[in-house]
């Protein structure tokens, strides 16, 4: 297992508060393998829930509390830069991050259109998944899947459209 694979496994361990033995880590050949294994290791819940929805709500609430926006103006496909004031968008984004009161807040690129709200929530889920975990600590299978995939995308830089059954090493090029 190469450095990318080690980083991904370490991300999963941190996100779910578990330890994945090396002997198991090398057998996790697909995202499906990882999802299935991790789901057996965490406290589970039967209800369907969505980690990214909780992250989206946190971002939206911070935007609403800092800017004069309506809830309808903030949706997953909104570009962050279009929601910020023209005068000093980076300072406004920093203040919004402080309002969100999260242990991590993504930076806003100096140039270009910047991320969408969906991309911001995906980054938050991959960086601080425990912050959006269920309050009772029980994970649904869909939540485990969402976090496993977010960490793969964040650590490897591959597009988020890969199938769960794709071989991480052979098909996706993750060492």
Describe the structure.
This protein has 175 residues and is mainly α. It has 2 domains: 64 residues; 77 residues. Helix content is 50%, strand content 0%. The protein has 8 helices and no strands. Helix 7 crosses helix 8. It is globular. The chain starts with a helix and ends in a 19-residue tail after the last helix. The model has no long low-confidence stretch (mean pLDDT 88).
Jot down its keywords.
single chain, 175 residues, mainly alpha, 2 domains, 8 helices, 50% helix
Taking all Cα atoms into account, the compactness measure Rg is 17 Å
Order of helices and strands: HHHHHHHH
- Give the helix level as a range of percent: 40-55%
Number of domains in the coordinates? Answer: 2
Report, as a whole number of angstroms, the end-to-end distance: 6 Å
The low-pLDDT segments are: none
Give the mean pLDDT.
88
Q: What is the strand tally?
A: 0
Largest sheet: none
What structural class do helix, strand and pairing data support? mainly alpha
Shape verdict: globular
Number of helices: 8
Task: Put the structure in a nutshell.
This protein has helices at residues 3-16, 22-25, 31-41, 51-66, 80-83, 89-100, 117-127, 141-156. It is mainly alpha-helical.
């Amino acid at each position: 297992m190469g450095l990318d694979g080690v980083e991904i496994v370490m991300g999963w361990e941190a996100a779910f508060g578990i330890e994945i033995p090396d002997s198991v880590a090398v057998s996790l050949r697909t995202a499906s393998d990882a999802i299935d294994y991790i789901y057996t290791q965490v406290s589970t819940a039967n209800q369907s829930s969505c980690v990214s929805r909780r992250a989206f709500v946190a971002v939206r609430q911070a935007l609403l509390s800092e800017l004069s926006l309506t809830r309808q103006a903030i949706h997953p496909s909104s570009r962050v830069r279009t929601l910020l004031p023209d005068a000093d968008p980076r300072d406004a984004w920093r203040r919004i991050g402080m309002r969100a009161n999260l242990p991590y807040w993504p930076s806003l690129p100096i140039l270009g259109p910047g991320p969408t709200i969906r991309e911001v929530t995906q980054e938050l889920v991959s960086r601080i998944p425990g912050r959006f975990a269920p309050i009772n600590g029980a994970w649904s299978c869909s939540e485990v899947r969402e976090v496993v995939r977010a960490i793969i995308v964040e650590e490897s830089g591959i597009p988020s459209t890969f199938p769960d059954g794709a071989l991480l090493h052979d098909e996706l090029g993750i060492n």
